[in-house]
Design a protein that fits this description.
3 helices, Alpha-Beta Plaits, two-stranded antiparallel sheet, binds iron/sulfur cluster, 4 strands, elongated
Length: 74
């Protein structure tokens, strides 16, 4: 599973395709008129998609590793 977690707020996304155009590694795909991150594991954290999104509806974070998650549970 990818460590990078990308979320597109589907209620806000207008499907303009800017994130697809600027992403150097092809993370996004337009599905039913909205952007969907389909290759999160390829993300190099350049933030170009966030900078070019006119609706400010992309968030990038990190998933806790299974080991870290276990530590927090204990
Ligand atoms: S941060 Fe860069 S590499 Fe990652 S999804 Fe956005 S544009 Fe693509
Ligand atoms: S740049 Fe923003 S509004 Fe445009 S398709 Fe991507 S997520 Fe949606």
């Amino acid at each position: 599973m990818s460590t990078v977690l990308i979320k597109v707020n589907e209620d806000e996304c207008i499907g303009c395709g800017n994130c697809l155009k600027v992403c150097p590694v092809g993370v996004y795909k337009i599905v039913e008129g909205r952007s969907r991150p389909v290759n999160e594991d390829k993300c190099i954290l350049c933030r170009a998609c966030i900078t070019h999104c006119p609706k400010n509806c992309i968030e990038i974070g990190f998933r806790a590793s299974p080991t870290l998650a276990r530590l927090y549970e204990e």
